[in-house]
Amino acid sequence: MSKFSIYNTQSRDLQAVNVTGRPVHIYCCGPTVYRDAHVGNLRTFLLADLISRTLKLSGMEVLLVQNITDVGHMSEDFESEDKMLSQAKLEKVDPFEIARKYESKFHSDLARLNISPANSYPRASETIPGMLSSIQTLIENGSAYVSESGSVYFSAQSFPSYGAISGNRLDSLKPGHRYEYSDDGEKKFHADWALWKSAGNRSEMVWDSPWGRGFPGWHIECTAMSLDLLDSHVDIHVGGIDLRFPHHENERAQSNSIVGGEAVDLWVHGEHLLFEGRKMSKSANNVVLVEDLISKGLDPLSLRLALMENRYRSQMDLTWDSLRAANSTLNRWRSSMASWGNSETIGFDSEIHSSLLADLDTPRALLRLRAIEKDQLLTSVQKREIFNYADQVFALDLKRVVEVKPLTSEQSALLESRATARANKNWGESDRIRDLLALDGIIVSDNPEGQSWAWSN
Ligand code: AMP
Ligand code: ZN
């Protein structure tokens, strides 16, 4: 059987996963739990799930660790404000309360998307001893130094292959770049970064250390947790493309300096998700959450399907239209599955299998599923069994029984008026009617053959 290969950002090439005799060690950078995960974050978390499920489909075992960042992640504006503490101030509650609230919302979002739980979810705040011992090792082997105030910095120049993942070599990182804590004047070299930061005036989320009270940097968290929980070797490291630099570059320097070799075999990055053509951001007020889908009557798994229609390595623009279309495809597939009998047998399809093994080509695998749906040479039972097979990775609950309620005469009339409005290119009216129908749980979507509808379930 051929092996699962995936694109390695570091080697810039496809690489096969060659692990035998033990589970494949996967580490996926988890959420910073100061706010809800948006559909873009979920695209990245789904990537780790698709990798795990594809490996399992090939008979391999997986050990997946995903961290919970509840301390140490500073705001993008580099004003040295911990994201957790700023949100705690805003919501006027204890930072740990914020962390636990968003952590539990993160887990329910994952469940709604059928993302299988990781084997462990270590919290940064509960892994301080591991981070302190990693930092101690780095000081002892000359990779890090302690500043006068009791902060500890990693010396970027001690790691000659710095930049191998992102291409940001040290000699091209100029002093003018906005680095973390660039203003504190304690670093020996502009590209050095804090492993431990002395508390200064900060009184919350601080711990004792051999260098005084303080708090950990974000990058050392992933080094400490991945090495500790994955036996000092990560086979596949997953994260969004924005984490390539500096987060993963710094993590690689730290982890390799501890283990004395490559700690990670494969660096996998998911491209970003745009929504209706724009980057999602709070300031642009276009952050979309799973809850927003649910409140529009869409099955959260329509997000899973819509995301899989695109390759993880391409930037993707998600739209309400594509979500509605995915929702109606889901309904159609579930109804077809019911009409194809009740076989629980898991079939096999070599094209779906080979598409997934080849760098997770989910769009091609879905095309194949559509072809199977229409294939007149296959029996209903065969179709159902291949759908059962595909659903091991797609995880779209294809066996779910959908309720088929009849439409009321008002609802039928509304559907007809909408079709007329569209034929007359009266888009405002057609959108208005679509929203009215959504309130009744009827999801309308448009396709080249005209409009179609389904119960939202
Ligand atoms: P955060 O909670 O901000 O630390 O992000 C969690 C994960 O989501 C990281 O792996 C990010 O790279 C990823 N991420 C952030 N924004 C997006 C986006 N728009 N599309 C896909 N992944 C994203
Ligand atoms: Zn990380």
TrEMBL record:
Q: Where is this motif: 'KMSKS' region?
A: 279-283
**What does the record give as the reaction this protein catalyses?**
tRNA(Cys) + L-cysteine + ATP = L-cysteinyl-tRNA(Cys) + AMP + diphosphate
Main localisation, per the record?
cytoplasm
Residues spanned by motif 'HIGH' region: 31-41
Q: Which compartment or compartments is the protein found in? A: Cytoplasm
Q: Which cofactor does it need?
A: Zn(2+)
Where do the tRNA synthetases class I catalytic domain residues begin and end? 18-326
Q: Per UniProt, where does Zn(2+) bind?
A: C29, C222, H247, E251
Q: Which HAMAP family match?
A: Cys_tRNA_synth
Report the protein name in the record.
Answer: Cysteine--tRNA ligase
Source organism per entry reads: Candidatus Planktophila lacus
